[in-house]
Amino acid sequence: MSIVEILLGVNSPVDLVVILSFLAVLYFGLKSLKPPSRPKGCRRLGLPPGQSNLDDEFDSKYSHGLPNGQDTHGRPSWRVKALFSYPLKSCGAVELQTSNVVPTGLEFDRQFVFAEYIDDVWNIRTLRNAGFNRLALIHPQIWIPDPSAPDYDADLTEVKSQGVMLISYPRTPPAGWHGLPIKAGMALRILERQHTFQVPLFPPTDSEFPLVPVKIWKDKTLAYDYGKLLPASLHAYLGSDPSTGTLTLFRASTPHSRQIFRNAPRKEDIGFQPNTAFADAYPIHLLNIASHRDVAARCSYAIPRLSIRRFRANIIIQGPTAFAEDHWKRISIGDTEIHASCRTVRCRLPNVDPLSGDRHDAEPDRTLKSYRRIDDGDRTNACLGMQLVPSKEEFVVRVGDAIEVLETGPHQYIKMLAPGENVEGV
């Protein structure tokens, strides 16, 4: 029976709606069965999907430190366990085996951010803002040009922009009966559960993305406004009305990166003034897995498996005992000397589960504040992890790199914002 014959045999408007809905699901479902196209001339950065160096993060062996030497396999016992870049601030991570480090931190880390137009200024939005815990379920991918790719061409748009970032987020069906076909298609797995779109990794020289001031804490910096690239479905997912123009996506501008001072070393000491893009305060955030395991054990009554991913560190290390890093001043990672500028002062952001986007009412913030308010520079908030500034602007960091402590000493955090607003490493 043909579609025309089916429609001619319809006896009521309700039947017609049902049939047309089914046909719509079938049509869009068949379209969605096509595999998503790989950006031309590019390769994906990071570990393959499904692989992670944190697969064993809940193993009890990480609750205990090790002597600083070599393990039974000849590897450094104090070493980098995992590396993460967060290209889109407060969204999903890209896990890496190796990363270039550039002046702003791990390459591509926190180069993009969402912002809302409030009180005549663009204000960044993160997981800590009410209603934005959905950012946790937005996942970026970094694709960089690959001359060995069979479809590589220097004239490709993807190559001219030095790569692209793919952004995926959950498909959200419309409310009411209009959304039923979409829900049915997703349940039957003939509709993808994710929307995906792409943006240039760098604005091409012939592009028309305006440089616009954006506010991040007390700083204002110029960044490229990518708002015209945001699809209506992303606005819907984040609860924004695209017609108002009050939500946008910014891409950091390298010439306008934010110089950092406070606890950071100075230009006269290391030859350059440290800077960052959309990280809160310092280029790199380090976390010791033994320290995290101590925190996780104390709040297991509320969250039995508290993942270290909640704390959004760039470099996760194994080997030192819990909180040994609290007093580090200088360390080496591989062959590079790095300044441990200050402790990471925590906010309630880790209360958001990165897998579900749900926000816990109390933990781990309550547990942290019960015993980790240790820094005289801010006795209001708890500390976990360290903020790092490398002694050189460019190098390479790898999983497995050895960790050596070169100097220890006291720390006193220098505030940037009012108590309760010191929020770093996100």
Automatic annotation (TrEMBL):
Keywords: Membrane, Transmembrane, Transmembrane helix. It holds the Pfam family MOSC. It comes from the Eukaryota. Residues 258-406 form the MOSC domain. GO terms for molecular function: catalytic activity; molybdenum ion binding; pyridoxal phosphate binding. InterPro entries: MoCF_Sase_C (IPR005302), MOCOS_middle (IPR005303), Pyrv_Knase-like_insert_dom_sf (IPR011037). This is MOSC domain-containing protein.
